[in-house]
Specification:
The structure is a single chain. This protein is an alpha+beta fold. The chain contains 5 helices and 4 strands; from the N terminus they run βαββααβαα. A 4-stranded antiparallel beta sheet has the order 2-3-1-4. A hairpin with a 3-residue loop joins β2 and β3. It is globular. The two termini are 21 Å apart. The model has no long low-confidence stretch (mean pLDDT 92).
């Protein structure tokens, strides 16, 4: 953590960030919700200068290594828009789906929102993304390994590159669900 808390101070630098679902709800066990998030990442890569260097989508959180390339879009703003849009789109999808946990998830999202002044009626993500500046190769490698080993440590796969909702496969030369800007 940098002096003064977790903040993105250099908008063009590379950061490790975590998007955590409120109450650790296992939202991303459903492919449709993972797809919504990946579609938003693609949009911001193609249109707003977002660079995704690594990622993993777990059942209730997402880790990413990100940077931004266009001067008109700083990384903090892009992250904020991704969190806001993904929250709204996932909530809409839950409301329109046959999600078996629909009422419970919506209730939990409403409950989380009621505890903060920033939200109206729902909250998918916790407010902080805990950005960590990756300003040297040691930090970069540690976070890259941490991201890629997350599904292995969770017992989901034996080999990191076998988890398709991660950039580990791309780093191993396999196809990726999104474009990766290799570190």
């Amino acid at each position: 953590m940098s002096k003064g808390g977790y903040k993105i101070r250099d908008q063009k630098a590379c950061y490790f960030v975590t998007f955590q679902v409120v109450y650790w709800i296992d939202v991303f066990t459903r492919q449709t919700y993972r797809d919504i998030f990946l579609d938003l990442l693609r949009f911001y890569q193609e249109n707003q200068g977002l660079k995704v260097h690594a990622y993993v989508i777990m059942s209730n959180h997402i880790h990413l290594i990100l940077s931004a390339s266009q001067s008109k879009n700083d990384l903090s703003s892009i992250i904020g828009r991704i969190k806001s849009l993904s929250s709204k789109k996932i909530k809409d999808e839950i409301e329109q789906s046959n999600e078996s946990r629909k009422e419970w998830i919506l209730w939990m999202m409403k409950r989380a929102a009621s505890k903060h002044k920033r939200n109206d009626s729902f909250q998918l993500w916790t407010h902080d993304s805990h950005p960590i500046l990756l300003d040297d190769n040691i930090k970069l490698k540690q976070r890259l390994d941490y991201i890629h080993q997350n599904p292995v440590k969770a017992g989901i796969v034996a080999n990191a590159e076998d988890y398709i909702y991660s950039s580990a496969g791309a780093y191993a030369g396999l196809p990726s669900l999104i474009k990766i800007d290799f570190i």
